[in-house]
Structures are given as C-alpha cells and as structure tokens.
C-alpha cells in the first residue's frame, strides 16, 4: 500500500470516527424516532393528482447517476486506443460479458443488438445507482407527517448528513416499475415484429385455448414481479442497515453493511434485473 493511499485511508478513518462520535452524542434515545419515518417519502405536488406528484430525491439522484455514466463514457472515448487503458479494458470486458449472454439467448442479430443496448443501459444505471446509494455515506432525507387542524397531511422534510447513504433511485418503486413496464412493452413489440400479429395472439392460446386468462395474467405479472424484486431488495437492505447501524451508533458496523448491500447485493440485483429483461425479450422473439 502506497504512502498516499495510507494517508487517504487514515484521513477517511479520522473523519468517519469523528462523525460517528457526533452521531453517538446527538442521536435520539428512542430507536422509533430513527426508523419510525423510514416509509415516508419526500413527495411534492398537489394532493390527489398522482401524475403531478414527484419524489425530488429520486429525480436528483437519477441525474447524478446519468452524469457519472456520461462522464465515464466520455473519459473512455477520449482515451480510446488499440492498447486499452484500464478503464477501456473494464468497459469492453463488461460489455462483452453482457453481449455474450444476449447472443446466447437471442441468436437473431436483428434483435440481439437492440436487446444488448437495453440490457446494458439498465445494468449500468441500476449498478451505479446501487453503488453510490448503497455504500457512500451522504445526505439522507427524513420526512415526518403531521395532520394539521384542517385535517390535511403536512410533510416536514429534514436533511441529515452522514447518518445514512444517499437515497437510491432504485428504492423508489416508480423508477423500477417504469423500467419494468418499458421492458414489457419492448418485449411485446419485438414479439409482434418477429412472429407477426396472428402468431403473437395465437401464443396466448397455447397449449390450449382455455389457458388464455392464465397466459394474460402471466404476462401482466412479469413487470410487477420484475419491479417489486428490485424494490424489495434495495429498500429492505436500506432499512436493515439503518436499523442495525442505530444500535452501534453508526460506528464500525455500517461500512461492512454498506459494502455488502451496496457492492455485492447491489451489483447482483442490477445483473438479475438486466438478465430478466433479456429473458423476457428472448421468450417473445424465440
């Protein structure tokens, strides 16, 4: 380990211990005050108009993820050469790995290339989202609900530094459901394009016509299970880290938990989501 890395590590450790001591001094005594509002979301927009209500934390973090991906892509492009740099070799290896999975599932190049673009985009977005929101301590949003005298629900928003990780866009069900529905629509479109409308409709009657309702329910269940799987794993992991971290006053244990749920579990969930997208599209075009 180089001298520069040692200095950076010791500096990080000193800051981390200092923040942990501050949290230990000022944390509320009752754990219910810490995790009691974990299900509340920072929502803005008019009440009752669901399509005009948004989660600003999800929007901001999504732009952060997109910015990181664009920066990385530009840096690889600028340094592109026949003798690849580390970043270029990493990007090429990752894309080759995903493309091999796509090609083994969809031999037809006409559908393999667009499926690869979709799967690779989903994997990169979800992976980066889970990484920066899974193990990097940052600004978290605490929301409490209060009912005023007129019976309206008022949300009080408080920004807290370094007692949790950045909010993950993938912990918002709206984000996951959007991508799952997108995969569902694309897979159905590819199925119609590959088989023709008559053969596509006939597929809902197989193996026997009486299975039509079950086949329709099975197709509609795909985006639901696709989105809920990612949402449940990311949100559940975040709640578990927050609850366990409180009992040790955010000292020593959180880095290991953040590393597991952010790096290991986060990357696996990104891989599973993108692989399922490939499988759903392949089942329609085959």
Automatic annotation (TrEMBL):
GO BP, sorted A to Z: proton motive force-driven plasma membrane ATP synthesis
Pfam families: ATP-synt_A
An MF annotation (GO) of this entry: proton-transporting ATP synthase activity, rotational mechanism
Alphabetical UniProt keywords: ATP synthesis, Cell membrane, CF(0), Hydrogen ion transport, Ion transport, Membrane, Transmembrane, Transmembrane helix, Transport
Record's keyword annotation contains Transport: yes
One GO cellular component, as annotated: proton-transporting ATP synthase complex
Its biological purpose: Key component of the proton channel; it plays a direct role in the translocation of protons across the membrane.
Annotated family: Belongs to the ATPase A chain family.
UniProt cross-references to NCBIfam families, sorted A to Z: ATP_synt_6_or_A
Annotated protein name in UniProt: ATP synthase subunit a
Source organism of the structure: Fervidobacterium thailandense
Gene behind the chain: atpB
């Amino acid at each position: 380990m180089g001298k520069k890395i040692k200095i950076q590590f010791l500096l990080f450790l000193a800051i981390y211990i200092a923040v942990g001591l501050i949290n230990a001094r000022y944390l509320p005594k009752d754990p219910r005050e810490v995790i009691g509002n974990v299900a509340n979301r920072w929502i803005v927009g008019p009440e009752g108009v669901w399509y005009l209500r948004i989660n600003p934390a999800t929007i901001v973090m999504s732009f952060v993820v997109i910015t990181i991906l664009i920066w990385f892509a530009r840096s690889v492009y600028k340094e592109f050469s026949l003798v690849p740099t580390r970043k270029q070799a990493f990007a090429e290896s990752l894309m080759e790995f995903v493309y091999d999975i796509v090609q083994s599932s969809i031999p037809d190049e006409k559908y393999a290339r667009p499926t690869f673009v979709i799967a690779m985009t989903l994997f990169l977005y979800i992976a980066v989202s889970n990484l920066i929101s899974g193990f990097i301590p940052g600004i978290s949003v605490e929301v409490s609900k209060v009912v005023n005298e007129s019976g309206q629900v008022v949300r009080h928003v408080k920004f807290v530094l370094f007692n949790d990780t950045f909010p993950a866009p993938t912990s918002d069900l709206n984000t996951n459901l959007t991508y799952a529905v997108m995969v569902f629509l694309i897979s159905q479109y590819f199925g119609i394009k590959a088989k023709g409308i008559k053969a596509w409709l006939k597929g809902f009657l197989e193996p026997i016509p009486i299975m039509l309702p079950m086949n329709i329910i099975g197709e509609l269940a795909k985006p639901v299970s696709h989105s809920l799987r990612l949402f449940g794993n990311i949100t559940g992991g975040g709640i578990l880290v927050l609850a366990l971290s409180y009992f040790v006053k955010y000292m020593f244990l959180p880095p290991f938990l953040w590393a597991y749920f952010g790096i290991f579990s986060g990357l696996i969930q990104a891989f599973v989501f993108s692989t399922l997208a490939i499988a759903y599209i392949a089942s329609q075009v085959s």
